[in-house]
Amino acid sequence: MSRYRLPAPLEELPFVIRPDSETPPFDWETVFGRSAPVELEIGSGKGLFLASAGAQYPDRSFLGVERAGKYFRRAVVRIHGAGLENVRIIRTDAFDLLERWIPPGSVAVAHVYFPDPWPKKRHAKRRLLQGELFRGIHKALCPDGVFCLGSDVRPYFDESVAEILGSGQFTQIEWPDDSPDRIATSYAIKYEKEGRGLNYAKFRRLDTK
Ligand SMILES: C[S@@+](CC[C@H](N)C(=O)[O-])C[C@H]1O[C@@H](n2cnc3c(N)ncnc32)[C@H](O)[C@@H]1O
């Protein structure tokens, strides 16, 4: 039996959000049952960030999005085990989520950590870090909202930072390595053990027409 067997059918787990094509953009007070700043993690993998951040910041609400069933299940098991009231997760494509269900100007912080680089040209469309994502994050963020990025792949990271800043939609702000909101993800831990360099950047949303 899988170690990551779901604790209950997904429809019985209140922290799993299951919108369909008819679902209107989320009302955060309904989704979280309270009013609090919302943080969005894109590509949540095994859910370590969500569980850690949710426990560390109980006065904030966290939504994770993960496309891959295998990782989504592991995140669901972890979040269930953590018993947190302020964490939600959704299994879908991040681009779809941003387009359909995230109300514009409603997210306080967006996080993207260690997305696969898909270095081959023919796989470029699969990359998370691309203009469409940065525009979607800009639209989702509230005025002065923040975008946190981490990657172990230096060229991918550098290109992304250049594109984000080049868009004129964000400005880079300091993010010292010992900041309390630098929360380890599964891949950060794995890559650090392997001695890979971890690159992080934080941006503040700028108002643009
Ligand atoms: C390398 S893993 C990193 C997971 C986690 N952020 C971490 O640092 O441990 C990248 C994750 O992003 C997810 N992902 C990639 N593209 C996605 C998309 N368009 N929508 C949702 N999830 C996506 C993948 O399925 C994978 O779980």
From TrEMBL:
Gene Ontology cellular component terms for the protein in this record: tRNA methyltransferase complex
Residues involved in substrate binding: 120, 152
Keywords: Methyltransferase, S-adenosyl-L-methionine, Transferase, tRNA processing
A Pfam family recorded for this sequence: Methyltransf_4
Pathway(s): tRNA modification; N(7)-methylguanine-tRNA biosynthesis
InterPro entries, alphabetized: SAM-dependent_MTases_sf (IPR029063), tRNA_(Gua-N-7)_MeTrfase_Trmb (IPR003358), tRNA_methyltr_TrmB_bact (IPR055361)
Catalytic activity as recorded in UniProt: guanosine(46) in tRNA + S-adenosyl-L-methionine = N(7)-methylguanosine(46) in tRNA + S-adenosyl-L-homocysteine
Residues at which S-adenosyl-L-methionine binds: 41, 66, 93, 116
Domain of life of the native organism: Bacteria
Enzyme's top EC category: transferase
EC number from the UniProt entry: 2.1.1.33
MF (Gene Ontology): tRNA (guanine(46)-N7)-methyltransferase activity
Function: Catalyzes the formation of N(7)-methylguanine at position 46 (m7G46) in tRNA.
Family of this protein: Belongs to the class I-like SAM-binding methyltransferase superfamily. TrmB family.
Database matches in HAMAP family: tRNA_methyltr_TrmB
Protein name: tRNA (guanine-N(7)-)-methyltransferase
